[in-house]
Design a protein that fits this description.
single chain; Arc Repressor Mutant, subunit A; 17 helices; alpha+beta; Beta-Lactamase; four-stranded antiparallel sheet
């Protein structure tokens, strides 16, 4: 198989894992081989408590070393804080976070990486909150060498698909969906689910989705096509559905998360899963994509991308907003983000202006109106 064929097959496997999470270890094993490394995983880190956990991995790291990392060495890993400030979907290697010669002198390298003959690690952030990050990473053994441009490019190809699959998998909380019972499994979801063709025509909707259409609020059926009341959102959905009809890889980073709001002010988040190949293709008939729509709930981690799009926030403004919600007052936010209190106050004024709020308590209420599927 040529590299293009390998990418297409791997992306299809990634989206199959969104519906059947038991596939993740095998998918991550294929990602390890494609990117070039000795192990891969989906995991999370908390930058303040210096703790974390693994969602899925391919078994390439010894169980004892995995335990030691999260019990002890995560505190000495120079990437732990750097990952928090990384851009979503942008591949980062060790040398992007610390001078490589300095890295070789760290306790983390000498006591944890060196005994395993690990020389580098390339990661992409798939989601983040004020103090936590969820990551997709591939370790490089000495036989692979340090991360190079080809490694970064391969990670860049996979990153948006891994991110979408993780978000959808968490949003629908579906343990497994086989080809012959996919429709029944999706019909039982609390989230609204719509199977649509490339033009957005509705092929199937589950009970929750039909209820949304009957309400005729932020989503409706117009000429058999799924229509979002907000014009910008509707256009974005059309483009995403069309891309999905062209294949798994074509959807790329388009429409990872779409924000919607009902007339009563309730917020919803929507994710699009392409149905172009594999188990999904066999089960979906003429559908090109599945749209999952779920209501925002209190107590869940906010989806940064949706909040930023809604209020047109800069990355720094978004970090200050989320830190204000999760950490507290201005001094605490400044300490967490490593900036001056005057900087935090400046960005708070910008946030008040953009969100139409007047107090930090108002910002908390705003973030509480959004939800994200990752739980750290």
């Amino acid at each position: 198989m040529g590299e293009a064929d390998v990418v297409l097959a791997l992306v299809g496997d990634i989206y199959d894992a969104a519906l059947d999470p038991t596939l993740w270890p095998a998918v991550l094993g294929k990602a390890t081989a494609f990117v070039g490394g000795s192990a891969a995983g989906l995991y999370a880190k908390d930058v303040t408590s210096k703790t974390g956990n693994i969602y899925y991995d391919d078994g390439g790291i010894d169980e004892n070393y995995k335990r030691l990392y999260f019990e002890k060495y995560i505190k000495f890993d120079p990437s732990t804080t750097a990952h928090f400030f990384a851009e979503i979907d942008k591949p980062m290697a060790t040398a992007d976070m610390i001078d490589y010669s300095e890295f070789l002198e760290t306790r983390f390298y000498k006591e944890w990486a060196l005994p395993q003959k690990l020389v580098d690690h390339v990661t992409v952030v798939v989601d983040k909150s004020a103090t936590s990050v969820a990551l997709f990473g591939v370790f490089r053994h000495e036989r692979n060498g340090v991360v190079d441009d080809a490694t970064r490019q391969r990670m860049r190809l996979l990153a948006p698909h891994v991110r979408r699959a993780v978000l959808i998998g968490r949003a629908i909380d579906l343990k497994t969906a086989e080809a012959d019972n996919l429709a029944q499994s999706l019909d039982g979801l609390a989230a609204g689910m719509f199977l649509v063709d490339g033009d957005g025509r509705i092929v199937h909707a589950n009970a929750a989705g039909i209820a949304m259409l009957d309400a005729g609020d932020f989503l409706r059926s117009g000429g058999a096509r799924l229509v979002a009341s907000d014009a910008d959102t509707d256009q974005a959905l059309r483009e995403t559905f069309l891309a999905a009809s062209r294949g798994d890889a074509a959807i790329g980073a388009r429409g990872i998360a779409h924000a919607m709001m009902s007339r009563s002010g309730e917020r919803y988040v929507a994710h699009v899963l392409p149905l172009a190949s594999g188990t999904r293709r066999r089960a979906a008939s003429s559908a090109a994509a599945a749209l999952f729509v779920h209501r925002a709930e209190l107590g869940k981690i906010a989806v940064p991308e949706v909040i930023a799009k809604t209020y047109r926030l800069t990355p720094t403004e978004l970090r200050v907003l989320l830190a204000t919600v999760e950490v507290g007052g201005t001094p605490e936010v400044a300490e967490t983000l490593g900036v001056a209190e005057t900087t935090v106050k400046f960005h708070l004024r910008r946030l008040f202006s953009k969100t139409g709020s007047h107090r930090q308590a108002d910002l908390v209420k705003i973030v509480a109106g959004f939800t994200g599927p990752l739980a750290y």
